[in-house]
Amino acid sequence: MAGLTYQLFSIAVVLGAVQPIGGYSFKNCIGDSYSKNFNCINRKEMNTSAIIKDLPPTAINLTISYTLIVHIPKESFVHLPNLRNLRLDHNHLSNIDDDAFRGLNELKSLNVSFNNIRELSPSVFDNLNNLNFLSLTNNSLKQLPRDIFSNLSHLDTLVLGQNFLTNFSGIAESVSHLQNLSVLDLCSNNLTSLSHSNASLPKSLTTLFLCKNKLVKLGCKNRFLGFIQVLDLSQNLHLDSTAFEEVDLSHINDLRLRSTSVDVLTFLNISNVNARHVDFSGTHLNNTRLTKLCRLLRKKGKTIRKLSLGYNQIHNLTNQMLEYCPTITGNLDLTHNNLNSTSCLEFINKQKSISSINVEHNHLTILHSCQFYSNNVTEVSYRYNRILTVFAYAFNSTPNVKTLELNINIIAYLDCDALSGLTSLETLRLDNNILTDLLQCMFRDNHNLKILNLRNNRIAVIFKWTFFNLSSLTTLDLGGNKITHFEESGLDGLKSLSKFYLDGNNLKQIDTSFYHVFQDTLTTLDLQRNQIRFLNEETSSPFRNLSKLSDLKLDGQRPYGLTVLPRHFFRGLHSLRSLYLTHNDIFFLEPDAFDDLTGLQFLTLDNCCVGATQLQPGVFKNMRNLTLLVLENMGIQNFSKDVFGNLTQLSRLQLNRNVMQIVDVGALESLPNLNYLDIRNTPLICTCDNSLLQNWTVYSNVQVVYLYNLLCPHDPKQRFYNFDTKVCYQDVEMYLFISTAVAIFLFTATPLLYIKLYWKMKYGYYMFRSWFSEQWRILREQEENCKYDAFVSYNSADEQWVMEQLMANLEGNGSSLKLCLHHRDFELGRDIVDNIVSAVYSSRKTICVVSRNFLKSEWCSLEIQLASYRLFDEHRDVLLLVFLEEISQRQVSSYHRMRKVMLKKTYLQWPGSDCTNPTQAQELFWNKLRRAMRSGSNPETEEQHSEGCKEENRETETHTSDEKYYLLP
Known about the structure:
It comes from Gasterosteus aculeatus aculeatus (three-spined stickleback). One of its GO terms (molecular function) is signaling receptor activity. It is found in: Membrane. InterPro entries: Leu-rich_rpt, Leu-rich_rpt_typical-subtyp, LRR_dom_sf, TIR_dom, Toll_tir_struct_dom_sf. It is a single-pass type I membrane protein. The structure is a single chain. Helix content is about 20%, strand content about 15%. By secondary structure, it is of the alpha/beta class. Among the domains are: about 130 residues, Leucine-rich repeat, LRR (right-handed beta-alpha superhelix) (Alpha-Beta Horseshoe), CATH 3.80.10.10; about 90 residues; about 150 residues, Leucine-rich repeat, LRR (right-handed beta-alpha superhelix); about 100 residues, Leucine-rich repeat, LRR (right-handed beta-alpha superhelix) (Alpha-Beta Horseshoe), CATH 3.80.10.10; about 180 residues, Toll/interleukin-1 receptor homology (TIR) domain (Rossmann fold). The strands form 7 sheets. The chain has a 17-stranded parallel beta sheet, with no helix packed on it. The chain has a 12-stranded mixed beta sheet with strand order 1-2-3-5-7-8-9-10-11-12-13-14, with no helix packed on it. It has a 6-stranded mixed beta sheet with strand order 40-39-41-42-43-44, with helices on both faces. A hairpin with a 2-residue loop joins strand 37 and strand 38. Helix 9 crosses helix 15. The longest helix is centred in the last third of the chain and has 41 residues.
């Protein structure tokens, strides 16, 4: 397996050398492969190139924010030619080189706001020919080079707010040629006037923001603002009415003068501005001056679309307040006026065309009962007041209102008839109040209500029939209350409910009996931060009939979490698309916990479990449509294919802040659509166990978030992506297999070899030693002049026979034969083995006197082995076997060489006393032995002797069968 892995790795390396690497993990950025967005946020890197050098040229949107970069060198983005949106905001930039943006011909938007830039080079933006939006807000610019925007012919919006610009003439000159510029933002600078020498604003400019400057006068020519439609001069504290003398404001559609010193009554008399397009917010109006303003407005026109009166000193609304105003056809803005009473908005009796009334951010405490009607108002907002009580028929004056906002007050009492008559109401916001009780009578007329927001009140119980009349309601938000239970029929009537928010309450169980009325319409159910808890696995599914539910939130049950996820808890939720289970301290996830969630696309289990989590094989087996899985901080220790193998559509997997040390690459490879993997803050070990993972992160098509910042836990100086894996690809397994196989073979074969080859090896050893000492060569040279006719090999137990019979018959009686006997002829003090070798090779023959004692002797065995090797290996007839007693072949079977001699050569048997004629037999025996000793040792001599033996054998056999003194093969 390791060998195959190494081969695959080698192939991958070769392929990587000839084609681009498929993987894309970035050192300082997180990318989105689909939208081609790259976010490089909160990085500690100070070098721009180091942040973006590894980004692909396909990048379209790039954000570099909240970093330490101070400088952008030239051609920093040249490798990103397709970039269209670039954000460099909230950094420490102070210097941008010329040609820093070279190559960004497709760039549409550039945001360099919230930095420390003090000055810019005239050519810094020369390469951005297609730029539409440029923001330099919140820097330290004091002036702009004259031609800084000369090549930005397509620029539409330029934001220069929150700098230290003082010279408006220079600004006007730098933008005068921008024929597509429509928005120029110069708010929060140090401009004192709009003097402009000979410069002019482009005719395309329609919106000019000059708020929060130090303007004292405009100082511009009559037609200088002739094309401006939106002019914001608010919060120029020293700007007064005289500044507008002889300035053409006829094209203005929206003029803002809040928090200036302009007297609007004087201003309207001296200016040619259309009074209907002036925002009167913050122009020091009170009730008396408002009446004068209305008279003046009426002189200038019979209708006005919008009347903005916010940020003034209008403390009460009377029936005559707007009596002299022109007809208001749109919105009336009364925000931030310290109003104490609205008098039932009685003024709308005379202003029946108003469609929207905004009374936010005032001091209203009570909404009184009203007895008159107006049919045109559709939107009313009382947000951010101090309303405590809403009396009956409080909105009779606006019976056709569709949107009513009463949120962010302190409403504790809502009369049963407070909303009476509001049959057209579609959106009602009562959130962020202190309501405690809801009654059926409160909503009896609101049949068309679609959105009801009651979040963050103090409701504890939903009484029966509370929502019975809200058959059209699609969204009900009861989150952030203190609800402990629903009374029977408490949710009846909600036939169209689609989104139900119950998060942040005190519910301890999920009662399915209350959901039957909207079980066929509900798509979103939010039960986060309640007190739901299960102690056993036998609870039936509370969702089994919610056939259309697509979004379910069960996060953070207080204070213990769900603890147990019951078996089949999600039964029936085949349409569910999103499931949230974070922060629940679940002890164990059953393998079939999610079996019914076949349509799930998003699942988050972040912080859902207690301690180390052992995900069971098959726990996600039916989630073939899952695309996003969040498993952060679950204590996961292992990652296997058995768990994740069926997630074939998964594209994003977040595993950060877990405790796994090894990641199974096979499990990752089983996710064919995976393109985003987050394993930050996991203690991945930098050993061979993760060598395949390291290789996979480089050559896969999956983005591993901040891969190059992953540290090795045992060596913080070492990075995971490049720890040394060379040793991991040596074929250790093969080596271990071979060495083990050899060891087993030797263990098995050694006893057999010992039995069969013991003497051969011993002989080889002694021959090698003799050869090494050059004795072998000497013996071979002496062979033709042998010292002895025969070397006698015998056991000491047979020494009597050798001395009395063998020596007497071969050396006695005038015989010329000379024998070598170890007790007589071995050299004293010499190694016995050397004596044996010398005796064998100094004798023409070797006579082995074989008996049972001979076979038991180690030295006798060595001697016969030496002689037999001369016989077979050197093809010399040097061995004579003499058997003193009957020995079967079985007894000599372990002496392989001796048995081989017996099968191929004639051997002699000493005739015992049991022979018929022992004397004659022994005489024949000695004659044969003498003849064999005198025969030559070369092959020809051996063959002749063999024939002679055969002839004499035949002769002897005819003589007698009892005189047995030799055996034929």
